[in-house]
User: Fold these one by one.
Assistant:
Number 1:
Amino acid sequence: MLLILIIGGLSSGSSVSSASKIYFFYIYLFTAFLPMLWIVYNEHTEVSSSIVGVMALYIGLLSLIARKISQNVTENIMLSFDKEALITQLEAKVVEANSATEVKSKFLSMMSHEIRTPLNAIIGFIKILQQNEEDSKKLKYLSTIDQSSAVLLNVLNDVLDIGKIEAGKFKIDKVTFNPQEEFNSLLVLFQQSCLDKGIILINSVSHSLPLSIEADKLRIKQIISNLLSNALKFTSKDQTIELQIIFKPETSTLYIAVIDEGIGIEVDKIDKILEEFTQADDSTARKYGGTGLGLSISNKLLHLMNSELKVESEITKGSTFSFEIKVCCGKTLDKVDPNSEIKFDGQKILVAEDNKTNQMLIEIILEEMNLEVSIANDGLEVVEMYKNSSYDVILMDINMPNKNGIEALHSIREYEHNKKLFTPI
């Protein structure tokens, strides 16, 4: 009996330790129990018969337990492999998604450049034609083309900004500027559009703003411009749009809000309008137009500046878009006479530009400024022309055939270093 109990205990332990390979367990079990069963069975007593029955039942129970343990161990191992495979798949998907985002960003950047190059030429030549045109009907047509081109350029810039932000290549560039002058000049750009729609534009830019602040002037003005454009789109005749800007010295922050009396936004759709390519609903897009990028870009830019866009709105009562941004009070800026005029006197300028239309436009503009212009068609040509002559300044395109603008810049700097020369590029 003692021997049976010892063998039974060892077999119980083996059901756990060897169950991962079930046939090992069976080899051990039957090797341990069969000789003992045979001996007890041949005793031919009442007790021996009972013991054989109990042993047989015990072997059966151990087999069931071992098979269950074996099944659990197998499932756990397979689950572990499945998890590893899933992690590998997820990592591959992340790499694939990042690659797709990078490809998309490159594509958007390339397409924006390819479209913007001829569009800049269109806008430039329109400005030239407007200067010399006296026919009121033709001026009206030119103005329409000019406005449409500006809208298209804004859309391109928005798409390009979204691509840069998603690719993590967007940087905040802080400069020192006079906020009063910059924000008031921004309002001037919207005055005519408001007059055309019969909208009252209210200037609530505080007179107690610092003389100068340090922040990303371009992006702050871009955000305000997007908010004013959005308000202008959804506000009707005899309603108001207000630009409110206040400086809070205790926290060194600018509070900026654009308040309109427009159509308003339903509460459950406020979060939706901050998504890319999204407006409150399809009917809004059809009626008022737009890509739905302006507010999304504004909010993404604010996130880069550790802020966010807040929206308060009520249907038919209007909306308030506001944000606060941390700024540094800069040094006092020297006043520049706005009536002063920069005059040139035949300085020589070398322009590296591969697009023929842009070459023509740039040449017209610079010659009107009394500059002597030379044109290079690519990076190789600009380097050779520079070595064979002297110029007061070089305007360098970046995307050019044969040698791009960056490579041409390095070649010129290397040549100048040996000659102890320096030309602004």
Note: The radius of gyration is 39 Å.
Number 2:
Amino acid sequence: MSKYDYDMIVIGGGAAGLTGSGIAANLGAKTMMVEKERLGGDCTWTGCIPSKALLKSARLVRQLKEGSRYGLKDQEVSFDFPEIMDHVRKTIQEVYEDADRPEIFEEMGITVTHGKAKFKDPHTILIEKKDGITETYSSRYFLIATGARAFIPPIPGLNDTNYLTSHSLFEIKEQPDHLLIIGGGPIGTEMAQSFRSLGSEVTVVDAGSGILHKEDPEMVNILQDRLIRQGVKYHFNAEVHEVTEREGELTVHFDCGDTEFEIKGDALLVATGRTANTASLELENTGVIYTAKGVHVDDSCRTNVSHIFASGDVTGEYQFTHMSEHMSKVAVTRALIKIPMKIDRDHVPRVTFTDPELAQIGASEEELKKKGISHEVYRFPYSKIDRALAENDTEGMIKVMAKKLSGNILGATAVGPHAGEIISEYALAMKNGVSMRSLADTIHPYPSWGLGARRAADQWYIRNQSEWSVKWIKRIFGYRGDVPDFSDPNRIV
């Protein structure tokens, strides 16, 4: 073991790399973390943190404009867009200082170095520093955690325009009058609502039949209808064939069926997914198998080269910070102490943080039908959650797929306020085998948003009750009340 400089070298200082380095050091491994830019990765600098900070500012503006919903007066809101963006950047810096500074990890005993890493051979990397110096280090184990970047589709003319991606969006100083967005996924959808709430005209062009194509269509429609009412314009089933720019005006040329369209705006956001950062690693020097999608790993995040692991976005499997952290935990634990942990693919929650939020975990209703898995669907509207009524925010629904008799939860989805928190409760339940019955029997505080999860679980009791069982109870105990109406199987109690 002493023939290597380090026990573990982690390449990449984003969510996956920070987690992997911290766990490795905590297990007593001599650890180095290499990052070519700034620690924190996309989540801190260009993804989760800035987008949620902007969403919050935009939501406050919209709520003030709609003050009559809360017993106030609707009002015109005066704000300075550069100040909002300064707030976003200050929030990024606060998160970096609090959680991502190199000193935090150096205090753990981790060697933090900045530079561009590439493999010389399976146990050796070269680190090219900005000053031109190249350093060489060897390690017993490696964790590749280099993340991903915005995918730019090969649209003619696009590279000749000043388009934006999530990497550059939060650096703009002027608010667009008309923001064009190519892509109706989570990034495109969140930013469409943000800029529309701030007063920009927003038009989204997407190749699919609607936004967020991976999510439950029934729930997506609730969110999409809200965005349309707020003024976001959509063109679906669109094939973009050219982008042009002239004197600061951008034009997206696309077809919808046999009809050609041109839309013009002063800013264009390309939100068409992400692609793994593998090009500069020179993985061919290791024998590691990878494709354009990313580095191939098994269920323990191990590549085909036994001492090299990979986690997070670079694998192309998931594009979530929470999964990057989970995968790094699996990878480092498997590498250093040989515990055969595996990626938990069955309980991966995902959330789009619009207003309302859209969240999902486990199997969807459509997936269960395709697989022929017997299940019941339980729906519970936000209009029956007292906290939603108190805050006049009742648009939304909780939907749970579960086994009829056992109540074992197979999947859940929610659209509405705090859906991300509600889905976390189902994530915990599914991971630990908590049934609908047990969830319904668990005391929840009133009036909380989480009570909606329990009320939805109550429907398992209602659905499994029958007319004959009530008649039997009445007869045994001599009760004189009426038998409930069981003619509607989807009745909400």
Note: The CA atoms of residues 42 and 48 lie 8 Å apart.
Number 3:
Amino acid sequence: MNPSLIGAACALLATLIWSGNFIVARGLGDMVPPVTLAALRWATATCFILPFSLPVMWRERQRIVRHRRHLFASALIGVTVFNTVIYTAAHTTEALNMSLIATTTPVFAIILSRIFLGEPLTMPRMAGMSVAVAGIVALVTRGDFGALLELEFRIGDLWMLLAGLLWAVYSIILRKKPTDMTQAAYLGSTFLIGVLPLIPAALLEQTLAPQWNMTLPVLGSILYIGLGASLISYMLWTRAVTAIGPVNASLIYYSLPLFSGIEAYLFLGEPITWIHLTSFLLIVGGIVLATHPRFNRQARATRPE
């Protein structure tokens, strides 16, 4: 099968899982403090991956030491900081603001890919990104674009903007993933390195934040974000970025509001209207325009490998 199609499918599936993560995280936001939630999420993912990755990590220990700078950067940005920033933003801003600001991730990815990877800014790519953004804006405003004039920006909006930049940086780092390391060794190393700073930070947070309880719904939610949104999704995203590059993978990330809307309809009973259908067409059309090889021959021809 075409590697590009496999990469696109991996990015799409990772985004689908992450859309469920936002719904779960929204419910946990008022119950579990942000650093603690991030620590529980990554401790769960690390505990599940280490039994499989430790033997591989031991065999590849010399490569891990050789690529330690890359691994530390990947772990700190993609594991330690990014998700903590997301959970912090959720406590201090509105969902509408978060959805709009999340669309900055592909913009950052395009700019950083141009600077560090030399990927061209093709007209189809820019046009597709604009069409997808229009679809997301229509979706989150429910077709009332006047709502944009009434937005009140808070400190959480700055946290969310930082999160968008961090995810773009993480995707750029993945593009430079060491080719002599297996995925098991790479993810095992980054998960372990990334969770270690979160543990003492979460313990410190417990002395300052309100007390919370580990109920069955909270446990189930943590298992979902720890296994699905962390372990499985990061494996898929690493494969996607390696196959199709950070820009195309980030553009596919635009489909996240679509999945969130469908899940809200199925699990929360929220209706699907003509705005949702229009947004679906705009977002999917923009993704196709920005990523399809037929429209991006220049990017494919000049993209560094």
Note: Residues 55 and 185 are 9 Å apart (CA to CA).
Number 4:
Amino acid sequence: GEDIHARTSSEIFDVSLELVTLTQRREAKAVNFGIMYGKTPFGLAKELGIPQSVASKIIKRYFERYAGVAKIREELIKKAKATGYAETLFGRKRYLPDLNNKNMGLRGFAERNAINSPVQGTASDIMKIAMTKVWEKLHKEYKDVEIILHVHDELVIEVQEDMAEKVSNIVKLEMENAVKLDPALVVDVNIGDTWLAAH
């Protein structure tokens, strides 16, 4: 039930959860995704503008705190090497012919994709399912409401102002129940005159 990026930020910057700034959260997001997908202390130090020794400590603390991440990474690479592909939760496959390449750069890229594809691919699958469910529900009840844009894990929906609250409740409900996962999906809904204003 916590914001994982804010939690990581709290631990990295040694501040309480309520005092985490948006900048710190953005940096922690880079840490969460970077480390998950194989970022080195050198790469993390460069991205965050910190000494490499500090980046090494962050990565060490991260794996101590989230020990399961290293295990999952190893399992995903092992499975992909055995099958020749990475797979989403819904069975979509990404073939990775370079997993056993002698070229370390190509092999490393394929290994990162063996980790990334199941996670990002599953997120993409879920988003497509959610978008379909939202569209079907909205078009049963509100014919003039339109999904005008899909950006990563967001939907931008155009609606009359007087219907915004009702429509946002439908969107939240349909997106959160698009698939059943543990932990459950949590969706934030914002209303604004523009996409930027809603952020």
Note: The chain has eight helices and four strands.
